[in-house]
Specification:
Layout lengths: L26 E3 L6 E3 L19 H6 L3 H43 L3 H6 L1 H28 L4 H9 L12 H12 L8 E8 L9 E8 L5 E12 L2 E13 L7 H4 L8 E5 L2 E9 L8 E10 L4 E13 L5 E4 L10 H9 L6 E2 L3 H20 L5 H17 L4 E2 L4 E2 L9 E6 L3 E6 L4 E5 L4 E6 L3 E8 L4 E6 L4 E5 L4 E4 L2
Parallel strand pairs: 11-12
Antiparallel strand pairs: 1-2, 3-4, 4-5, 5-6, 7-8, 8-9, 9-10, 10-11, 13-22, 14-18, 15-16, 16-17, 17-18, 19-20, 20-21, 21-22
């Protein structure tokens, strides 16, 4: 059966090409519209876009890989150049050894034949030593070549391979390999960016090396998404597989560790929970203005079961003294008692864009919220009587003892009593005063158009002592008699 990608004749029944590693399936996914089409298509029969140019050489195709993969392949070329240099050095040393041996042999032949007969045993020993020295030089050169990565024949075989070459992995290699392999297999046509990748070493026998990685696209206008991939090393090639895709409706996201204020050695990484293998990674919504809502999402992905567990942390966006923003939160939006969510709650402490207050801070915040809520409630017209008692009850007791006190006047834009509750009303040039059936007295300032409470419950009669000077008389059901100045808010008891 022939490979649709490189034309190589692969053994019958092969799942992948033994030359370039491409799938031997008769179908492939169009990188433009995503539809499944015949693998030998040059143009997509669904959307009409070119999907393969048979006139291009493999080197041209490799040159079009993503920038992240270029660094990786540059390392391979440098390594191959170093191998060629060492091979040339080995050949040069072999040539020098042969020339030296020929010179010694010529020198021996020029000596007198009689001397040869007399010193035959000595010459034999000398030639034997020279031969052994030449063999030692050759063996040393071969050992040096083996330590550098193999012979020139092996080097030529690597050049023929149309796949990612395997090298010693550094911290940046997994992401570079992920980007290069996804581009090489036409899996990056969705506009996503490779953002996170970790290397998981195999045991050298049954379990191969793997790379777990995440790509994402942020699009607030439509929907963002991220995709989780696994790359499995088969010999000198990496076979990619998409494990899961998750769409986020109307949520722009970023996986930038500098935005998360997270250590790159911690996020992302491979972890084990209850003996199962997981990929741990995080993302967040870009921070808005001060006081707006911010969100960070922590994730663990069960690679074998292909199950994603996520915990959202939501809080108020605030600013530090250096101007950097952070999310002030108290608990996750969603949580459970699973080991996965408990792991994520522990890891949240290492995401520095999140701030979790202490118990003392939480208590103070709760008290401040309760006070703010009470003030908001008291500011309502429905709470006018309760507010008057809270602010003036002690002053009424002082007025009973003969002291003149100034009452606190809280005003409202809307009526604080119902019309049907009025039992009596009197008017002066600047004020209207109302007595309700439950014994409360209310005033209305005609100039400011504001309502206010004069006396809360217990009043039985009202009347002006001096309407021109706005002096109001109030009698209570328990026999009290007070004079209230509507202008100044002063109250005193009258005998």
């Amino acid at each position: 059966m022939r490979c649709a990608k490189c034309g190589n004749e692969a053994p019958e029944g092969s799942a992948f090409c033994n030359r370039c590693g491409a799938p031997m399936s008769s179908n492939m996914q169009c990188p433009m519209c995503g539809k499944m089409i015949p693998a030998n298509s040059v143009f997509c029969p669904k959307c009409g876009k070119m999907v393969r140019n048979d006139m291009e050489e493999e080197t041209v195709e490799q040159a079009d890989t993503a920038a992240a993969g270029q660094t990786y392949y540059e390392q391979q070329r440098q390594q191959q150049a170093e191998q060629q240099r060492r091979e040339q050095e080995r050949l040069r040393r072999q040539q020098a050894a042969r020339q030296q041996t020929n010179a010694w042999e010529k020198e021996e032949d020029d000596e007198d034949d009689d001397d040869d007969e007399e010193q035959g045993g000595s010459n034999f020993n000398r030639n034997l030593l020279i031969g052994l020295a030449a063999v030692a030089v050759i063996i040393g050169g071969l050992m040096l070549l083996r330590g550098c990565g193999g012979s020139s024949d092996n080097h030529n075989e690597e050049e023929k391979t149309d796949s990612t070459l395997v090298t010693e992995v550094t911290s940046q290699d997994p992401l570079a390999i992920l980007s290069a392999e996804l581009n090489r297999n036409n899996l990056m046509g969705d506009g996503a960016s490779a953002s996170a990748a970790v290397m998981v070493k195999g045991d050298g026998n049954e379990v191969p090396d793997r790379i777990w990685g995440v790509t994402y696209l942020s699009n607030a206008a439509e929907r963002s998404f991220f995709k989780i991939y696994q790359l499995t090393r088969m010999g000198s090639i990496w076979n990619p597989e998409m494990l899961q895709v998750k769409y986020l409706e109307g949520r722009p996201i970023t996986m930038d560790n500098s935005k998360l204020m997270a250590d790159i050695q911690q996020v992302p990484r491979a972890v084990k929970i209850d003996g199962k293998e997981y990929l741990y990674f995080a993302y967040m919504e870009p921070l808005g203005g001060e006081g707006a809502q911010g969100r960070v999402t922590l994730n663990v992905f069960d690679v074998k079961a292909k199950k994603l567990t996520a915990v959202d942390y939501i809080g108020t966006i605030k600013s530090r003294s250096d101007g950097r923003q952070y999310i002030h939160c108290t608990k996750p939006l969603t949580s459970s008692n699973s080991n996965e969510s408990r792991f994520l709650e522990q890891e949240a402490k290492n995401i520095k864009v999140l701030y979790f207050p202490t118990e003392e801070e939480l208590k103070a915040e709760k008290e401040a919220q309760e006070k703010e809520e009470m003030e908001r409630k008291m500011a309502s017209p429905d709470s006018a009587d309760a507010r008057w008692k809270q602010e003036n009850q002690e002053k009424v007791e002082q007025a009973k003892s003969g002291e003149e006190v100034t009452m606190k006047k809280s005003t409202y834009d809307k009526p604080i009593f119902r019309k049907e509750d009025i039992s009596n009303q009197i008017h002066s040039e600047g004020y209207s005063v109302f007595l309700t059936k439950n014994g409360s007295v209310y005033g209305f300032d005609k100039n400011t158009r504001k309502y206010f409470t004069i006396y809360s419950k217990g009043a039985s009669e009202i009347g002006f002592h001096d309407s021109k000077n706005h002096l109001l008389g109030i009698k209570t059901s328990n026999g009290g008699h007070y004079q209230y100045n509507l202008s100044t808010g002063s109250l005193k008891s009258i005998k």
